[in-house]
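Q: Predict the assembly, please.
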Amino acid sequence: MAIADAKLRRRPQLRPRRGRSTPYLLIAPSVLLMIGFLVYPILSVLWYSLQTYNVTQPWDNGFAGLENFRTLLFEDPVFWQSLGFSVRWVLVEVSLQLVFGLALALIVNETFIGRGLARALVFSPWAVSGVLTTGIWVLLYNPTTGIFRYLADIGIGSYDTAVLADTGSVFWAVVVAELWRGVPFFAILILADLQSASPELYEAASVDGAGRIRRFWHITLPHLRDAIILSTLLRAVWEFNNVDLLYTLTGGGPAGVTTTLPLYVAQKATQSHEFGYGSALTTVGFVILLFFSILYLRLSRFGGNR
Amino acid sequence: MSTQHLHGASLAPSAVDTAPGKEPSAAPGPTGRAGAGGRRTGRRRPGNAPRRWEIYLPLGLYLLFTLVPFYWMLVFALRPNGSTSLLPWPITFEHFETVWYDLGYSTFFWNSVWVGVASLFTTTVIALAGGYALARYPFRGRNIFLLALLCTQFIPGAMMLIPLFEIFRTLGLINSLWSLVVAETVFQLPLSLILISGFVRNIPMELEEAAWVDGCSRFQAFRAIVLPMLTPGLIAVGSFAFIGAWNNFLFALMFVNEQESYTIPVGLSYTLGEYSVDFGALAAGGVVAALPVVAIFAVIQRYLVRGMSAGAVKG
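A: Predicted assembly structure:
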């Protein structure tokens, strides 16, 4: 600070003159890209949602008012089914990821032999894409080549277990596949915050006779509170938006039981090219996520203490 | 704030003496791990540290869950078709030859490399400029922009397919890999900006100011002081960008419809469509898709935790 003051006294014009346009120039590429490819598209989604717009049937296209919304709210069981699956998917996936991610972070935060290698290994699925995850789990779940067949060989389960084809088990099959890739990221976020926990607190608590469980409840959890809230909400949004895994693993099936709302949009866009209707679905998705965003901003008090 | 509360409530005097360095890990160490290890040995005492089996048992179980799927893929990629052995022996590379030459993975691979590297550069350069501005200049509109960055985290990529498709069609970029680079860059930018501005904020302003006093221009000071200290952060951000671009599936599926422009995930999804025919090819394609990103990840995972604590979580 002292250096800054001295410098400002010597050359008072340097900082204000330079500071005026430089930040805008530096930030301009980011702002322009985001306006062109995020803000404008969002506005055009709102506009498309009021249209009948199908690239394969241009003769039908035109302004439709709220017709798309009326259809999806009152005449489209797939919309309600996909919304229901989305909610169930997010709740189950995120709460399991939180529990396993927290546990994993606590374990790899300890000092033990092979910690670096263990971290690299358990976190590695994070780098793996949805399609690749699908490839791996298709092999693992397949009734003739998968793990259930080998388990049956040693007397566990039966030979014809086809978890992805069964409407009852498919939910848990996709949940486990996504956990495989989702838990590491959760663990990384929590581990990052764990490392800023003051060791003195733990020492003091030990001196005071607090056991490990008490220290977890009274020091670790309060310290992690903000990180847990933030990562949980972020994961909730990301899992809500997660499409590639479901798109390729189940295609939304069997019988549409694993179709989430974004997956339904993607199907409308890529398969039937109903851009207007898909945009209306998107708009509904935005409104739901807006609720999440407000909750997130409230809880994180973002930007308030910068 | 909860930390401070605990400081006041329960601490013995001896601990208060050592308390001022509230966040020891904030000091930049070469790996960030040396510091952690040093601290931990300090609080390790008999009866308090978890017993060995309490670490290794759950960790072992989780490792099993992590590694068995990888191993399964590797076995299928390396063993001959028709074999049911769980050890890939005798090893064959016929599946790799099939996917690389017959299924076109050599093209997909280089397309993916190109998209990944281009996205890496555009994202890193643009986010470096913007992140530095966010960290160092108190300009008007800064907080609104930060808020906007955060809000972008809630925009579903899948839901942007339709308007982005229209934009790229207007720009004539459908079937061009540039459409993927642009879309990937835009979606990577917010997190990259947040991370880089966090990294820059961790570099003491005094260092730059000292350089100015010595006669450096702002840009010279940036190049001489900030850039070298930012290198680990830039590696992390660049790797995120590369991994993101390498893995992106829906944009590539939607914007690129000619086989010579497919990227690895799209190629893999078509191999997946025929998985009932050839599991070996599917697994070998998976290995080709996984190798670069897992290798990069193994190198950067040390920076990863530190990068997250500098930028994202503290947001």
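The two ends of chain B are 15 Å apart (CA to CA). DSSP finds 14 helices and no strands in chain B.
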